[in-house]
Amino acid sequence: MDRRTRVLIVAIVVSFIAFLDGAVINVALPSIAEELGGGLALQQWAVDAYLLTLGSLILLAGSLSDSFGRLRIIRIGLYGFAATSVMCAVAVDGVMLVIARAMQGAAGALLVPSSLALIIATFPSAEQGKAIGRWTAWTTSAFLVGPLLGGVLVDLVSWRLVFWINLLPIAVALVLLHRLGRDERNLDRERIDWIGAALGIVGLGGTVFALIEQGRYGWSSPVVLVPLIVGIVSLGVFLWWERRTPQPMLPLSLFHARNFAAGNLATLFIYAAFALGPFAITIFLQEAAGFSATFAGLATLPPTIMLVLLGSWFGGLSSRFGPRIFMTVGPLVVAAGFLMTLAVQQDLNYWTQFLPGIAVFGLGMAMTVAPLTAAILGAIDPARAGIGSAVNNAVARIAGLVAIALIGVIVGTQLDVAGYHRVAIATAAFLVVGGIVSWIGIRNPAPEERATTADREAPPQSASAAHPPAQPRSSD
């Protein structure tokens, strides 16, 4: 097995761990709320506590990855994820679970950007679209396995096993990492932006707290108003600080690359929809339609199956024809799928009211995910792959974080049929905006420049030391 193959396998397994947790948790939410109490608010916090620290720290993790080595940061993240998974599994109340989930998100922040950076640093640019397509297809198998596995564990044993199960892939990843050796020393590493990280956490934390708790206290309550103001001000100060500090956690210069800027703006809307829609579907199927956790997991498998089967193919097509058309049409197809689920009624007929829509949703996801990732990471210098990947992941996680926090504003305190219809419409609206942004903002690399770049590239010797040439310029 050559080094490229081994790196791809490690990147897949490491990302699988973080994605598996996200896929499993949704089907367990009703059981968690039933045992620990807290209703919809606890269900939101069980997801958003994880996304909060993940989204806040993933930029910091990207800097750590570039400065201290991708393999080292991945190992630290794996050990942290194992410890916090155990904490979640033994939680005695909602507060302990939410705290443990927040700590788990901090560990998860170290995993995904470093794994993607390994791919970008190892594969030449002509092969990155296909490699990322394979990474996307295989890591999204977590979303294939997760709902079904989580449903079975919840129904047959306990929701606590959905956290214990994380330990198995973590052990596999640590064994695989051992064969890749150690990172080379980076004598030019930059200072870490701890102030920026703190401002990001406070800004996101205050804003999300207000969005989730407004349903309980009301917008005029100081319990909601004060965190909201502090959060918004902190986010403003964060942007000011990132422009001022010489070594920012979020290098705003990255956004000078058109595809990076437009791609991340599209990511904001697309991944808000990807988080909001499935979150609502899983809870609705169990609490309103009466599905068991296992059947809810089975019911949501078709989109993931299509993504696993077609993701690599669309990734290869985007390398050949450019990502613009796929990033435009894909979100519109997903939006059409969600609008088709407006046929859902209280007496749910899954085969006629739900399955056709989520099948279309799956096709659109397969068209979108790999081209979107390749377009964004292909727009920056591979030497900055760690922070570039981290920025894109942060945007995606923050989009999901805010979208799930908003669900209470959209549906109130109960996700009934009317509430689900409102969520489906909101999800489709996010996706339409994402597709429009992609069409206006994304530019395909010129074919002749791609060919020239591919001809002059030499295979890198190691993931830590060698970088392929910078990506070609974009053209209309």
Q: How many strands in all?
A: 0
Overall shape: globular
How can the largest sheet be summarized? none
Poorly predicted regions: 449-476
Strand content: under 5%
Average pLDDT works out at 82
SS content category: mainly alpha
Q: How far is the first residue's CA from the last residue's CA?
A: 40 Å
> What is the string of helix and strand elements?
HHHHHHHHHHHHHHHHHHHH
- Rg over CA atoms, rounded to whole Å, is 21 Å
Helix content: over 70%
Specify the number of helices. Answer: 20
Identify the notable features of this structure and list them briefly.
476 residues, mainly alpha, 20 helices
Write the layout of secondary structure elements.
Elements: H1 3-36, H2 39-68, H3 70-89, H4 94-108, H5 112-122, H6 125-139, H7 141-156, H8 161-164, H9 167-178, H10 194-217, H11 222-244, H12 258-287, H13 293-299, H14 301-321, H15 324-340, H16 350-377, H17 385-405, H18 407-411, H19 417-441, H20 447-456
